[in-house]
Amino acid sequence: MSSSIQPPPLSQPLLQIEQLQVHYGSVQTLAGVSLQVQRGELVTLLGSNGAGKSTTLRAISRLEPASGGRILWHGADLAAVPAHRTLKLGIGHCPEGRRLLNRQSVAFNLELGAYLRRDRDGIAADLERCYALFPRLAERRQQQAGALSGGEQQMLAIARALMGRPELLMLDEPSLGLAPKLVREVMAVLAELHGNGQTILLVEQNAQAALEIADRGYVLEAGRIQLQDNAADLLKNPELKAAYLGS
Predict the structure, then answer these.
(1) Mean pLDDT, consecutive 10-residue segments, the chain of 247 residues?
(2) Domain layout of the chain by residue ranges
(3) 167: nearest Cα among 12, 35, 17, 40
(4) pTM exceeds 0.70
C-alpha cells in the first residue's frame, strides 16, 4: 500500500474498524469490535483491565494480527500493511508503559520519534513545539529519560509520538500511575492538541478525565463494545457511572 493515500472525503471516517477479532492462541481477545474515528475527533475507548483496549490499538498498528474483520484507513484495508509502515501512513502509537530509551537524553528520544522524516527544518520546529507544550521537557532536554519523574516520562512519550507528525495519534493509558495533578496536565495538553485539529484515539481507564475532553466514546468489555455515545451523554449514563465513575 502506498503512503500517499489521499485524504478521505468528509463523509468517510479516517479510521474505521469493522467486526475486528483478535485471538491469542485459542483465547479470543476481541470478539467483533466496530468503531470509527472521523478526522479532527477525539474519541475515547474505555474499559476495565483485560477488556481488550490495548489489543485494539495494537491491531490498528499491525502489532497484533487480526483473525477476522477489517481495519480501514482512509477507506483502504490495512490487512497487507506491515507494522513498520503504519507510522509512515500517519498512524502514531504512544504505547502503555512509555517504552522510552532510558539511558538516552530527552532530546534524543524526541528526535527518535522523527526517524522517518527528512525535513530538518520541520523537525527542528516540531522539537520547539513539543518543548512549548511540555516546558519541563525543555528544562530537562539533556537529562537521561530514565531520570525523569513518571509524569515527565509520560509527557516525553506523548511528545515523541507527536514528532512523527501523525494524522491519528493513538494513546494507551496516558494517565496510568500519575498523580491527579499530572493527570489534569496531560489531559489539558490532549485537549489543546485536539483543539488545534489533531485527531486522537484515547484508550483510558480514567473514564471521567477522558470523557471530559472527548467528542465521543466507546465502552469495551470482554472484547465487545457495550456502549457508545457522545461524551456528554456517556458522562450522564447511569450504567457507565455505576461501573466507572463511582456513583
Answers:
(1) 46 93 92 96 93 95 94 95 90 85 92 88 93 93 91 92 95 91 92 96 93 96 93 90 68
(2) 13-90+167-247, 97-165
(3) 40
(4) yes
**Whether 44 contacts 210, CB under 8 Å:** yes
Strands 224-230 and 76-77: unpaired
What whole-number distance in Å separates Cα of residue 52 and Cα of residue 35? Answer: 13
The answer to whether the beta carbons of residues 168 and 162 sit under 8 Å apart is no
Cell numbers describing residue 158: 506523548
Name the H helices within 14-62: 53-60
Q: How far is CA 41 from CA 36, 59, 81, 216, 232, in A?
A: 10, 20, 24, 8, 14
Grid coordinates representing 60 are 490498528
Determine how β-strand 216-221 pairs with β-strand 42-46.
parallel
Q: Which CATH number fits domain 13-90+167-247: 3.30.930.10, 3.40.50.1010, 2.40.10.10, 3.40.50.300?
A: 3.40.50.300
Confidence (pLDDT) at 131? 95
CA-to-CA dists, residue 216 to 36, 83, 86, 234, angstroms: 10, 27, 24, 8
DSSP assignment letter at 146: G
